[in-house]
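step 3/5: co-fold with glutamic acid
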Amino acid sequence: MGASSPSARNPQVVTRFAPSPTGFLHIGGARTALFNYLFARHHGGKFLLRIEDTDRARSTEPAIAAILDGLSWLGLDADGEIVYQFARAARHAEVAHQLLAAGHAYRCYATAEELDEMREKARAEKRPMRYDGRWRDRTDGPADQPHVIRLKAPQTGEVTIDDKVQGPVTVANAELDDMVLLRSDGTPTYMLAVVVDDHDMGVTHVIRGDDHLNNAFRQLALIRAMDAVEGNWPEPVYAHIPLIHGADGAKLSKRHGALGVDAYRDEMGVLPEALENYLLRLGWGHGDDEFISREQAIDWFTLEAVGRSPSRFDQKKLESVNGHYLRATDDARLVSLVGPRIEVLLERPLTDQDRDLLHRSMPELKKRASDLNGLASSALFYLRSRPIPMDDAAKKLLASAPSGLLARARAVLADVSPWQAAGLEQAARGLADAEALKLGQIAQPLRAALTGAAQSPGLFEVMETLGRQESLDRFDDAISSATN
Ligand code: GLU
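step 4/5: write tokens
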């Protein structure tokens, strides 16, 4: 195995996640961050975070906070200081001026009207707009007049990017015009900022959505120009990963429902490790392995195994992955995760006693849950004060039970000691035999009386968890409301 083997570690690797803080942390962004994180950790290299806040009109503080919050919830901690792109504008401009001084960039005085004409012409000829290079070889512009600085990009030949996910992709230089580096107000363009920041941060691998593939060719031209000017501007390895699509095959958008990582956490009750596992498997795979721990993911992650075609987001699949992780989560952590949700539903704070009850109910409850909200609502009946509310199905079960059955069951159960599931079940079976009923016929009204619903975790486990007094009192409530 030589150094090029995908599993060879390379501690020089530096990746970055570079979100624009214009909204929440989108699940597509979270997956990009995850891949960058895993790739860096796999190699023992660095994973950096850069906030691309140069769009002043659209970048907001709450969006930055949401991105940081989402990353920290997912446990994707970046190395080193966070880089804020806007704060580096002077450095970006410096590079543009270096290119200008070396003849790799030029001042362009084309007016808005001239650019409109070029745009019109392109439209008439049904081709993309390209700046025609009219100032490329002129130096007679009046420096005090408004102008932009453009890169003097190669006009002939072609560029090939050996993309680690897309494979080799080639574009003719004639397709790329001379892009603007500095606007007429002196502010750097996004393209310039990205290239300078990646260079200064020592980024070796650019892993991002494939909507940026076209940008990569222009960015590469800029890197090559700076390498010609001052040397030591290495080209990064590119890996453009396919975007996530919705179940209908269209690019994932707001139309497909909540997309912010916070909504998966808060509104859908998803565990971070479940979302991570789901996003990891969306576009990357390791054989048929379905549940992959963080350690395994770090060990196994390679760019070569990222798929080339867009993957479809499947809510049902996410729920089933989440159910798996809920069942694997220890009860104390589940109590602390569902606690606040239950307090909202009950509209009161939980007592220590409630928490203890919840803890004891978790082994049964988590068997059936696929998200934390469902888990929280399924736990409510344990904590309600008597008389507990009955849903319609429970009322029906109680109304249709054989006359006096509940009272007879209560009497038999009251004699059971110790108050444990096995003994309680035995007593209920004995009564069923004596009454020539099936166990289920006795269990149904008992469950309705105890839980207020027709479905619940195992009846006798519920009795044991609720305790003798509370169980008998709930039976009494049901008996007296039936006779009233
Ligand atoms: N800021 C860009 C975005 O949020 C990413 C740029 C990059 O990764 O090069 O889409």
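step 5/5: annotate
The mean pLDDT is 95.
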